[in-house]
Each structure stands twice: as C-alpha cells, then as structure tokens.
Amino acid sequence: MSDRDKEGRPPAQNDDLPKRGPLGDVLPGKEKQDPRTRGGLPPEKVEDRPNVGTVKPEDYPEQQ
Q1: I need a labelling partner for 47 at 20 to 30 A (CA). Which of 3, 18, 24, 58 fits?
Q2: For residue range 31-47, what is the model confidence (pLDDT) as tens digits?
Q3: DSSP line for 17-51
C-alpha cells in the first residue's frame, strides 16, 4: 500500500498544508494561512515590557 493520497500526492502535501514545489518550498500564489500556526503574539506596550537592566554613570569608571 502506498503512503500517497488518492490524488498521488505525498502526505505532506494534503489540502490542509501549503502547496509545495518539488524542492519542498512553498509555491508562490498558493499561500493561505497555515492551519498549524495561529500567528505570533501581539507586541507588548513599551511600558509593560520587563526591564532587563539599567546603566548608571557609576557603572563606567573614569578612564585614567
């Protein structure tokens, strides 16, 4: 028994995934939203972002 679907496509090229060319790249004009991902998170407001560090003048010793 073959692992291809009824149209002869390999399992990675079913209708739920973007259409791919022979090298595995997505074919132009065939993109639709990938059902495997919902997209990234929206960016946080600057005021809500955690502070990773602050620099004070005391952190830099005077050069001699």
Answers
A1: 58
A2: 566 666 667 788 889 88
A3: S--B-TTSPBPTT-----TT----PPPPPGGGSPP
CB 20 within 8 A of CB 13: yes
Asked if residue 4 lies in contact with residue 11, where contact means CB atoms within 8 angstroms, the answer is: yes
Of 37, 41, 60, give the one whose Cα is nearest residue 49.
41
Across the chain, which distance is largest between two alpha carbons, in Å? Answer: 79
Tell if the pTM clears 0.70, that is, is over it. Answer: no
How big is the chain by its Cα radius of gyration, in Å? 25
